[in-house]
Amino acid sequence: MTLAYDGTRYSGWQKQGNTGNTIQGKLEKVLSAMFGCPIEVQGSGRTDAGVHAAAQVANFRADTKASPAEVCRYLRSYLPQDIGVLAVEEADERFHARLSAKQKTYRYRIWNSDVPNVFERKYLYVCPETLDVAAMRACIPYFLGTHDFRAFCSNPELKKSSVRTIYDMRLEELGQELRLTVTGSGFLYNMVRLMTGTLLQAGRGALRPEELPEILEGGERWRAGPMAPACGLCMMEVRYE
Fold it and tell me: Pick the catalytic residue: 6, 48, 92, 132?
């Protein structure tokens, strides 16, 4: 399944025992009702509470004669309006939305103005202060390539490898909007929001781009910038073989 959703009112992608208000939880509830048995959905990434997706990929297994088109129609009929199913197709038996993914692209949008953006306010981080965009861009080369990104992870108990590869990172100026687009092999918990927060610190003059190699090498979370709010982040694309 390829999905789009407005994450504003949800507690993130991953289902939780104390709430049914998650994207995964909503999908599993509708699919389980359709097939008359418990259905488990796997997503390509666990987006945080308040984070959006333009093309999240997910998979599930079901013994059914229903066609992908019928599954798609059912989901569109019973899911809430802020979760949209863009496509459903039959996948190879070995396919796994997260484990099979090769690249993911996220976008973070910053509204760098004190002029209200009424119609897109839920999808932008409003930052009215003057930012040094050149300093923000000067940070980007330090993130590119393969590094240990432990300093850019919110999970202090992380036991798995924190090495990731950033293939592309661009900061565009579109009128009053700054748009950061990042493509990587994968991302740690809150990694994109922490990288964005670090760029913003550079834009405010609170951090020098030349400090980034030492921050990456040190692996200490407190040395990187603060985490940017969830509302500006959107999963844009997941690529497979």
Answer: 48
